[in-house]
């Protein structure tokens, strides 16, 4: 089966736009169930800038999906069109783990001196992240992070259905990680449930906590920001 590039591009743009604005809308309303991590107000017009950069990132994601479809159409990458439930669950788990590995490597690279100064700094303009920070990237960063699906296909022919779950899974965790809310206050910074405070600390300090959801790669490579309770972090940044 051959992919139609215009259909692929249109569906990707539409799908990411729906997920981004829908996820951000929900994320901005989660304050009723979470404790603010940093209590200072965000910068004026910050969300406007985040939305602008995120729309550019979504266009980049569309182009990357077209490029991936081109490689599949020409037999350079392969996808599966049939899948069973056990295989689907295993593939989703594998994609989740690959997303974690890919993000840690990419993010660590983005924090090298040159790339941070010229590329990744745009994401860190959001010192206090919001749900709209999710795709707020320089276009080079959007290319790098958006390659997660394409690079996964270098190793295995995932089913189309499992591949479709990756952007949704990634966006949900990304929105939660950027909404500046601690949903499980008082837990250790290395707890799985403390991924939002870990990423908020990363935005404040700019060094360490390069992982996405799992804390294990930061632990393995000694890049964890030292233990901080979210409620201490909140008090430290009040006023």
TrEMBL record:
GO terms for biological process: lipid biosynthetic process. One of its GO terms (cellular component) is membrane. InterPro entries: Fatty_acid_hydroxylase, Sterol_Desaturase_Related. The keyword Membrane applies. It is found in: Membrane. GO terms for molecular function: iron ion binding; oxidoreductase activity. Keywords: Membrane, Transmembrane, Transmembrane helix. Its main location: membrane. This is Desaturase.
